[in-house]
Amino acid sequence: MIKIDKITKSFGAKTVYSDFSLDIPTGSFLAVLGRSGTGKSVLLKNILGILNPEIGDIWVNGLCVNRASQNDLDKMREKCSIVFQGSALFDSLKVWENVSFAFLQKKSYSEKYCREIAYRNLKWVGLESSAELYPSDLSGGMRKRVAIARAVSVNPKIILYDEPTTGLDPITTNMINDLMAEVHDKFKATSIVVTHDLESMYRVCDEAAILYNGKCVFYGPVKNIKTSKNPYVEQFLKGDTDGPMGR
Ligand SMILES: Nc1ncnc2c1ncn2[C@@H]1O[C@H](COP(=O)(O)OP(=O)(O)OP(=O)(O)O)[C@@H](O)[C@H]1O
Ligand SMILES: [Mg+2]
After folding, report:
1. Of the bound ligands, which one is closest to the alpha carbon of residue 17?
2. How many A from CA of 133 to the centre of ligand 1?
3. Does 36 sit in the ligand 1 pocket, CB within 6 Å?
4. How does pLDDT run across 33-69, given as a tens digit for each residue?
5. If you average pLDDT over every residue of the chain, what do you get?
């Protein structure tokens, strides 16, 4: 479903990825782990074609996103959703308008229909009563749930989450984890979650990738991770300041 094929991505003198490859099979739920600044958010933006690599290709469902026409990219994005690291809601739109943004934008859907979609998805994340509020009226956890409601409103085939539980209390974290697992079951979507939260990973993911220094230094089933002798995995799980990933 998603194939990252030997990409190099730099910003000025900083190389984030160098000859980086990763294959993500259809229907899997992948956790992407790595130290801050290793390029996890950049990876998600590359998959959606928001950023492009200088070398190599990114394939999503048979489309080479870094070479695709705007028209093909738009079509591909209709079936891909992202929950951004900071939720990225539109401050000037009400919560329900944020959730139905993709439909409101097209103008071919009635307001009644857009409202119905938004209310249905908001109910599902437990926020129906907040539909007429603005994002600034919500807590961080509520904003994340609105972002998830917006992401699922388009029946995605691919869904990308960028640190959906960072900064949330343990109960809200588990609620978000349950939502992600439910979305995965309901839409059979190929899912990727960037997370620092190992409990979330054990709970919802089936594969894990650890990124370091422009490369993938571990890729494998989550169930193998606790017993892995890979030194990168060992350092990451223990949070050691000594190890191949440095301090
Ligand atoms: N648009 C941009 N212009 C210049 N540099 C960028 C841009 N986007 C990302 N970077 C750089 O790329 C590197 C990787 O950034 P990225 O946001 O992907 O890190 P991350 O792994 O998501 O970190 P965190 O865990 O802190 O969110 C960083 O050094 C960042 O400064
Ligand atoms: Mg990030």
Report:
1. 1
2. 32
3. yes
4. 999 999 999 999 999 999 999 999 999 999 999 999 9
5. 93
What's the confidence (pLDDT) of residue 167? 83
User: With contact defined as beta carbons under 8 Å apart, do 4 and 19 qualify?
Assistant: no
The encoded tokens of residue 95 equal: 């919560």
Q: How far apart are CA 228 and CA 161, in angstroms?
A: 25
Instruction: Provide φ and ψ at 35, rounded to 5°.
Output: -65, 160
Q: How crowded is residue 110: how many other Cβ atoms within 10 Å of its Cβ?
A: 10
Q: 11: Cβ below 6 Å to ligand 1? A: yes
Q: Which residues are in the CB-under-5-Å shell of ion ligand 2?
A: 41
Q: Is residue 247 pLDDT above 80, yes or no?
A: no
Q: Which residue has the tokens 């979330």?
A: 200
**CA nearest ligand 1 atom 5, residue:** 11
Long-range pairs, 98-105, Cβ under 8 A, ≥24:
98/135, 98/146, 98/150, 99/131, 99/146, 99/149, 99/150, 99/153, 100/150, 100/153, 101/150, 102/78, 102/150, 102/153, 102/154, 103/153
Ligand 1 pocket member 40 (CB < 6 A): yes
Percent of the chain at pLDDT above 90? 76
Rounded Cα–Cα distance for residues 76 and 61 (Å): 8
